[in-house]
């Protein structure tokens, strides 16, 4: 399973709902052009282009993301994502 997380600097000129709406629209447009990313891995070398789409998650935090990522803790990062998608590599 592939996970991609995109973080954007806040644009103070627009409200939260417009930002989310724009991100959804952009994601929809890019997936229609690169439909392979909306498919599912069938095995190690095959992607089934079944048009199932992708999960779109909105997380709100009170702190600056840069502050959290400077000194990340597994507990804090896992609270931002469902099903503990974010895992810190224990070897680093």
Automatic annotation (TrEMBL):
GO terms assigned for molecular function: vinorine synthase activity
A Pfam family: Transferase
Gene3D superfamilies per UniProt: Chloramphenicol acetyltransferase-like domain
UniProt keyword list: Acyltransferase, Transferase
Superkingdom as given in the UniProt entry: Eukaryota
Keyword Transferase: yes
Enzyme Commission designation: 2.3.1.160
Family: Belongs to the plant acyltransferase family.
Protein name: Putative vinorine synthase
Taxonomic classification: Eukaryota, Viridiplantae, Streptophyta, Embryophyta, Tracheophyta
């Amino acid at each position: 399973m592939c996970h991609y997380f995109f973080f954007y600097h806040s644009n103070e000129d627009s409200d939260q709902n417009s930002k989310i709406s724009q991100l959804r629209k952009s994601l929809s447009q890019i997936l229609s052009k690169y439909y392979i990313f909306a498919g599912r891995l069938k095995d190690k070398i095959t992607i089934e282009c079944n048009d199932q789409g992708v999960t779109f998650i909105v997380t709100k935090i009170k702190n600056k993301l840069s502050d959290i990522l400077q000194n990340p803790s597994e507990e804090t990062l896992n609270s931002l994502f469902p099903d503990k998608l974010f895992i810190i590599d224990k070897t680093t």
